[in-house]
């Protein structure tokens, strides 16, 4: 724990809970995607492409004929523009799924009605439910912390909103172990800039020294919280999985190079 | 001549047409999130032609503009005048670079054109340097005070002008050709009460410094710090005047603001708005506009594919042009900017003299804006090999090293000969 940087697979969860409590940890914060909820080896572009297939069926039912490729290109462009035009906090921006779909609908020439956006978000959540799995080891550790009276929070840099993430977590976990969820898209603040941690401390009135954060991203889950004096544990995805993801990303990128936003 | 006109028009239609159409499509998407919250200012001169194309796009698609738009009389030199005291260090660096070797009088006639100041005789022909510039901006001498009065007036006129354009809005979307957003930097310094967002055709971190204002700028069509073979659009960095030169209507840039006869704020130079649409001799721009008229029949995917292919073709034509491409892609000489009367040609002329030395030819390549184009012009037989070397960074460095060493060796030999002759 002195190094504030431990690979979770090297310690038993019970030992971790014991030593954390002994060190005065009263709050545990968890990253969500690729930490508490695990993604498979599909890279972002492939997920968007598969989503475009789902969207194509959805629009066909509504009487619009869009090709998968067209919707995929629209999603990539909308994603980029939403992040570029999101409110600026310091030097960072974070987009929301609603904004992404609003731009997406503008791109394909449809009116961005709230009802259509909600339907698209529901489709996206359905797709995520099929492709995510729970990190059992981390879930058991969180459960152990919860039993010992340690408060659990989720902190994520993600375009989904809080209620969307709640839906996803509740799909996998019936018990509510956590106190609250902090999502970058709702606060216009990110973990990668450190601003989301500041908001979390202010709202929960917690000292950084009593917090343990677990996550997979080297910058937003390790370096930034460490700078703020938070204890961190790195929970990276297996290298083979990351490698596979990279290969699949290159494949789809080469296939749809012309759609690159 | 007619063939050249047709070829240039085809270049505009087939290559630059899809590129600008895709830019306008994305510009619209970039503006949508600011609906009702911002005002869009198209910066003179390049920006107003983008505005012309953007409005053509909106009309073609029968969609309304998401935010109110205005043409915006500005330029690097004008924005700098408004911000020189707030951002002196950057302004000084830029001014000393632009007016290197200028005397105080010449500097003044360019920077404060149309004004008259009696400088002390001993200073008139003094070359402009950091101390003299600082004296001009912050000093207490009579001539410095007159310059400061001019700068203050420019600053207040700009403020009044911007207030009229922005109204109640605090978010400003600045649309321009690009590249490093110096104008926006000075505007941000001069008017910090406004939130500036740059929506440029290209964003180029030329010196890889990641300047502080860069996070407020988006390069809609191209964005990088250098050319990368995997991203064909970055080839534009080797000849970005193909975009800039094309978009600049033939009226002078805005050097300072003044009040016209009707009491309205106007540019110091007369601006003829009829020069914004394509003119009879602007065949490339005509081709682009023709594409915009025809593009309504294409699907979203068609436009994406055509844009990608157009960037691939443009990359090939910029980096590896054929002799046929040179007259098609060479634009008219560009003004040196910053109030200077000098013109900068795209391809530096060596005259029609035959038997020029290699050093003269290489010098002409170095001085040309489009270096690959000049290589083809100067070395009509060897250009395929030379372009391979020039465009390959490692080979290029190695060749430059050899050439430099060769000339250094020759110079050394000559000096030895001279020395031997002198010493007998």
Any descriptors?
heterodimer, A: 261 residues, alpha/beta, 53% helix, disordered N terminus, B: 424 residues, two-stranded antiparallel ribbon
Structural class of chain A: alpha/beta
- Alpha-carbon distance between the termini of chain B? 62 Å
Kindly report the spatial arrangement of strands forming the biggest sheet of chain B: 2-1-3-4-5
**Percent helix range of chain B:** 40-55%
What fraction of residues of chain B sit in β-strands?
5-15%
The proportion of strand residues of chain A reads 5-15%
Pick out the low-confidence regions of chain B: none
- Identify low-pLDDT runs of chain A: 1-5
Radius of gyration of chain A: 19 Å
Which of globular, elongated, flat, extended, rod-shaped describes the shape of chain A? Answer: elongated
Average pLDDT confidence of chain A is 88
What is the gyration radius of chain B calculated from CA atoms?
24 Å
- Order of strands, widest sheet of chain A: 7-6-1-8-9
Explain the layout of strands and helices:
The complex is a heterodimer of chains A (about 260) and B (about 425).
Chain A: H1 13-22, E1 27-30, E2 37-38, H2 44-61, H3 68-85, E3 88-89, E4 92-93, H4 97-107, H5 114-131, E5 133-134, H6 136-147, E6 151-156, H7 162-172, E7 180-183, H8 184-187, H9 195-204, E8 211-215, H10 218-227, E9 231-234, H11 239-255
Helix pairs in contact in A: 1-6, 2-3, 3-4, 4-5
Chain B: H1 2-31, E1 38-43, H2 46-61, E2 69-72, H3 76-83, H4 88-98, H5 104-111, H6 121-124, H7 130-138, H8 142-166, E3 171-176, H9 182-190, E4 195-204, E5 217-224, H10 241-247, E6 257-259, E7 265-267, H11 283-294, H12 300-319, H13 325-329, E8 334-335, E9 343-344, H14 358-367, H15 371-378, H16 383-391, H17 393-423
Parallel strand pairs in B: 1-2, 1-3, 3-4, 4-5
Antiparallel strand pairs in B: 6-7, 8-9
Protein described:
The complex is a heterodimer of chains A (261) and B (424). Chain A is of the alpha/beta class and 261 residues long. Chain A is built from eleven helices and nine strands. Chain A has a five-stranded parallel sheet with strand order 7-6-1-8-9, with helices on both faces. The N and C termini of chain A lie far apart (43 Å). Chain B is built from 17 helices and nine strands. Chain B has helices at 2-31, 46-61, 76-83, 88-98, 104-111, 121-124, 130-138, 142-166, 182-190, 241-247, 283-294, 300-319, 325-329, 358-367, 371-378, 383-391, 393-423; strands at 38-43, 69-72, 171-176, 195-204, 217-224, 257-259, 265-267, 334-335, 343-344. The longest helix of chain B has 31 residues, at 393-423. The interface between A and B is medium-sized, with 26 and 22 residues.
């Amino acid at each position: 724990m002195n190094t504030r940087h431990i690979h979770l697979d090297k310690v038993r969860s019970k030992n971790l809970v014991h030593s954390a409590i002994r060190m005065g940890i009263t709050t545990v914060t968890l990253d969500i995607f690729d930490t508490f909820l695990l993604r498979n080896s599909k890279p972002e572009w492939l997920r968007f492409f598969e989503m475009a297939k789902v969207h194509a069926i959805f629009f066909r039912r509504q009487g619009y004929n869009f090709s998968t490729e067209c919707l995929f290109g629209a999603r990539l462009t909308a994603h980029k523009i939403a992040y570029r035009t999101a409110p600026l906090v310091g030097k960072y921006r974070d987009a929301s799924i609603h904004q992404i779909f609003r731009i997406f609908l503008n791109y394909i020439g449809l009116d961005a009605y709230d009802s259509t956006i909600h339907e698209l978000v529901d489709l996206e959540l359905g797709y995520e439910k099929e492709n995510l799995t729970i990190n059992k080891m981390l879930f058991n550790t969180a459960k152990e912390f919860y039993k010992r009276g340690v408060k659990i929070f989720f902190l994520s840099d993600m375009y989904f909103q809080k209620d969307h993430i709640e839906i996803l977590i509740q799909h996998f976990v019936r018990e509510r172990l956590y106190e609250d969820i902090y999502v970058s898209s709702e606060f216009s603040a990110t973990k990668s800039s450190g601003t989301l941690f500041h908001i979390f401390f202010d709202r929960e009135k917690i000292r950084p020294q009593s917090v343990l954060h677990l996550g997979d991203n080297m910058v937003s889950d390790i370096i930034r919280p460490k700078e703020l004096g938070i204890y961190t544990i790195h929970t990276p995805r297996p290298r083979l999985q990351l490698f596979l993801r990279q290969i699949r990303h290159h494949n789809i990128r080469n296939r749809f190079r012309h759609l690159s936003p | 001549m007619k063939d050249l006109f047709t070829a240039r028009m085809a270049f505009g239609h087939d290559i630059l047409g899809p590129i600008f159409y895709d830019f306008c499509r994305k510009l619209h998407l970039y503006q949508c999130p600011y609906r009702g919250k911002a005002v869009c200012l198209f910066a003179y001169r390049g920006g107003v032609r983008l505005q012309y194309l953007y409005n053509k796009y909106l009309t073609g698609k029968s969609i309304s503009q998401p935010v109110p738009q205005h043409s915006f009389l500005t330029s690097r030199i004008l924005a700098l005048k408004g911000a020189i005291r707030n951002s002196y260090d950057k302004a000084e660096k830029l001014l000393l670079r632009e007016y290197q070797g200028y005397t105080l009088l010449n500097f003044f006639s360019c920077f404060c054109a149309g004004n008259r100041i009696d400088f002390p005789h001993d200073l008139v022909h003094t070359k402009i340097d950091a101390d003299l510039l600082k004296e001009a901006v912050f000093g207490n001498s009579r001539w410095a005070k007159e310059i400061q009065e001019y700068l203050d007036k420019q600053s207040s006129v700009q403020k009044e002008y911007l207030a009229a354009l922005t109204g109640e809005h605090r978010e400003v979307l600045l649309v321009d050709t690009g590249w490093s957003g110096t104008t926006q930097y000075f505007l941000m310094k001069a008017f910090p009460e406004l939130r500036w967002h740059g929506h440029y055709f290209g964003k180029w971190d030329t010196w890889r410094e990641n300047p502080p204002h860069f996070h407020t700028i988006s390069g809609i069509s191209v964005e990088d710090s250098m050319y990368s073979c995997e991203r064909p659009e970055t080839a534009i960095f080797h000849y970005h005047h193909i975009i800039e030169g094309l978009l600049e209507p033939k009226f002078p840039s805005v050097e300072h603001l003044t009040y016209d006869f009707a009491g309205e704020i106007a540019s110091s130079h007369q601006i003829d708005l009829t020069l914004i649409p394509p003119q009879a001799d602007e065949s490339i721009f005509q081709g682009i506009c023709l594409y915009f008229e025809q593009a309504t029949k294409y699907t979203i995917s068609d436009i994406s594919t055509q844009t990608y292919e157009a960037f691939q073709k443009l990359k090939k034509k910029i980096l590896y042009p054929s002799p046929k491409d040179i007259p098609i892609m060479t634009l008219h000489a560009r003004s040196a900017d910053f109030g200077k009367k000098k013109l900068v040609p795209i391809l530096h002329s060596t005259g029609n003299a035959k038997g020029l030395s290699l050093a003269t030819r290489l010098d002409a390549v170095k001085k040309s804006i489009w270096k690959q184009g000049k290589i083809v012009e100067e070395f009509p037989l060897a250009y395929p090999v030379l372009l391979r070397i020039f465009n390959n960074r490692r080979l290029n460095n190695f060749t430059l090293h050899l050439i430099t060493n060769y000339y250094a060796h020759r110079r050394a030999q000559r000096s030895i000969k001279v020395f031997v002759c002198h010493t007998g």
